[in-house]
Amino acid sequence: MKLIINLFALVIIASGLDEDAVKELKCSAVSSPDSGIDLKWFGSINQFYVPLWNQLYATRTAADLLSQDARHIPFEAVQPASCLTMNKDSTISGFGRQVKYNITGDETSITFRAPWSGAKTGKFSFHMMDNKSYVLGATCWDDNEASWAVLSTVQNLEPKSRTDILKYIKSLGFDENKAVDENYAYCGLNQLLLTPISYNSQQQHLLLSPYYIYFK
Ligand SMILES: *[C@@H]1O[C@H](CO)[C@@H](O)[C@H](O)[C@H]1NC(C)=O
Ligand SMILES: *[C@@H]1O[C@H](CO)[C@@H](O)[C@H](O)[C@H]1NC(C)=O
């Protein structure tokens, strides 16, 4: 009975995603990468997945793709997985939407901007990569907030890669507990799961994803 009351209380006070609660580091606190990337490999990939990233990145990307202030995005809209893909034609798909970004790049970074976020750009600097299945980058946003994400050719990182990546982001000063593992197993053919779901099914999803911490 107590559990039911608690879940009910969560539903009542749910307001949306909370960006302030998931901010971590300022850009200036993140050291510069010291290794290069194999651009030929990177340029040859048609589609990247994002199996691991931090909560701030997930929140901002949801806002960009859903064209809404994060506070107005109900928790259910981002459940239970982003299903994000970054495609060679500069489109980003996820959260049930597809948006064409303005993306430019050089040998150390990608600079990107979504139409909805207007002048707010992010610069994704390559930090750690195996030149065959993933690249970990840290993004510095125009408002001096830093976040990180892994672009990968595979939906599930090798356990060793995941461990190495988490160790690395910790060394940069990010919080391992604010990492989000994405689960592409939820991403069905028609992405039915991506359409906003009713509060009735929310209790079930609460148990499935680290997004529950977005509740306040
Ligand atoms: C990736 O490729 C770049 C460019 O060829 C190279 O400098 C770097 O050492 C490579 N990194 C790994 C981990 O293989
Ligand atoms: C895309 O970004 C580049 C580099 O920042 C900029 O020069 C260009 O005007 C942008 N294009 C659009 C359509 O925003």
Automatic annotation (TrEMBL):
Keywords of the record: Signal
In Swiss-Prot or TrEMBL terms, this protein is called Uncharacterized protein
Source organism's superkingdom? Eukaryota
Q: Which residues form the signal peptide?
A: 1-16
Protein's organism: Folsomia candida
